[in-house]
Design brief:
By secondary structure, the protein is of the alpha+beta class. Helices cover 43% and strands 19% of the residues. A five-stranded antiparallel beta sheet has the order 2-1-5-4-3. It has a five-stranded antiparallel beta sheet with strand order 7-6-10-9-8, sandwiched between helices. This is PAS domain-containing protein. InterPro entries: GAF (IPR003018), GAF-like_dom_sf (IPR029016), PAS (IPR000014), PAS-like_dom_sf (IPR035965), PAS_4 (IPR013656).
């Protein structure tokens, strides 16, 4: 329970955020709501306890002196646990940031312990599972009772179903409790939630990636030349074809926003959305959004500067659907980038590419390629795009 007014305000704000996230998750996935409902009930119980007992518990907390003893021994025990355990374990602070991770755990998350330290653990959880995981983490910190549940890790080109066990650790030398996360194989094999199998390892090889980029650039150049050549003059640039090419060979989802007049971001409109076949509902959802109500396209249209999110930490960066659900979560996004379409008279639009969490993240080299393609598209757009 909170110990002072500032802590109480923080608890209420965090509770509000978690409830909103759970509500959005339930809106997007009504047929798979068991885990979300259980987390929601836990949040409801906490809210009731907060309203009924906050005053009494605050008074008790104010008068209680924190116990400080055997700090060195506790730290030694924690170090021994991390050095000897043969299962992946992660130590989180009370805000969910990685304090320490053993070598096996770092390997499971696909990076080194040094890189992972200080990162929010939620960033390595699939978007559609983050809300439930955060609520369970908060419940463990509040109650001190361990929690075990099925979840999914997804980041930087891999995706894996796991069973998580969260345990609170009260360390005398720490002002706030810590949480130990143990990762193990899932207890039950449910339906595959991923949109596609993982990319093969060869996709990480430099030569193969360079060849792919060259192939995409060559195909896009041919498309642009065909639009400007015989038979193409006088008709608008085939944005549908350009977006479909990128969605087919370089990303899962491609969004093109254009301005009817150069450097008039306030008049931007969504022109094209290309994505996987059979996902018409998601496509219509993205098509219906106003680009100016989406943080990333709006900033690119306004400033003319590219944005690269190798690790998506804000599910609302591309906007929210009619029911308030984050678009990126609905698309299963793991990485995205957005580049301006620059014409001879300024910014003509924005090109957004999205990769799902089971594909390799976009890199700086990818950003350079798409920036070049975006410039070619911007120059090929007619002086005024037809409405």
């Amino acid at each position: 329970m909170p110990e002072n007014l500032a802590e109480l305000q923080r608890e209420i704000a965090e509770l509000s955020d978690r409830v909103a996230a759970l509500r959005n998750t339930h809106t997007m996935y009504p047929d798979d709501s068991a885990d979300t409902a259980e987390a929601a009930l836990a949040e409801l119980g906490f809210a009731e306890q907060l309203l009924q007992d906050c005053g009494r518990r605050l008074a008790a907390a104010e008068s209680a002196a924190p116990r400080r003893s055997n700090g060195d021994d506790e730290r030694s025990v924690l170090r021994a646990v991390f050095s000897q355990l043969s299962v992946p374990v992660v130590l989180l602070d009370h805000e969910g940031y990685i304090r320490r991770i053993n070598a096996i755990g770092a390997d499971r998350l696909g990076s080194s312990p040094g890189y992972l330290s200080g990162k929010p653990f939620a960033h390595f959880v699939d978007l559609r599972r983050r809300a439930a995981m955060r609520s369970r983490l908060a419940a463990v910190l509040r109650s001190g009772e361990s929690a075990s549940f099925e979840s999914r890790l997804a980041q930087r080109g891999w995706a894996e179903d796991v069973h998580m066990t969260l345990t609170r650790l009260d360390v005398p030398t720490e002002a706030a409790p810590l949480v130990l996360v143990a990762l193990s194989p899932p207890l039950e094999s449910g339906e595959d939630e991923g949109p596609a199998p993982l990319e093969p390892e060869v996709e990480d090889q430099v030569v193969v990636l360079a060849a792919r980029r060259l192939d995409v650039l060559t195909r896009m150049t041919r498309l642009l030349l065909a639009s400007a050549g015989p038979g193409g003059a006088g008709r608008p640039l085939a944005l549908d074809d350009a977006a479909a090419l990128l969605a087919d060979s370089y990303a899962d989802w491609v969004v093109v926003d254009v301005c009817d007049l150069p450097d008039s971001a306030e008049q931007a409109r969504r022109a094209v959305v290309a994505g996987p076949s059979g996902e018409d509902e998601q496509r219509r959802m993205v098509e219906s959004l106003d680009p100016l109500r989406s943080e990333i396209p709006r900033e690119v249209l306004k400033n003319g500067e590219s944005l690269l999110n190798q690790l998506i930490d804000d599910e609302t960066a591309l906007g929210e659907a009619a029911g308030g659900a984050p678009v990126l979560s609905a698309l299963g996004a793991g990485s995205l980038m957005c580049v301006p379409l620059k014409g001879s008279r300024g910014v003509r639009g924005a090109l957004t590419l999205i990769r799902r969490s089971n594909r390799g993240s976009f890199r700086l080299a990818d950003l350079g390629l798409i920036e070049e393609i975006g410039e070619h598209i911007g120059l090929a757009l007619p002086p005024r795009t037809a409405g």
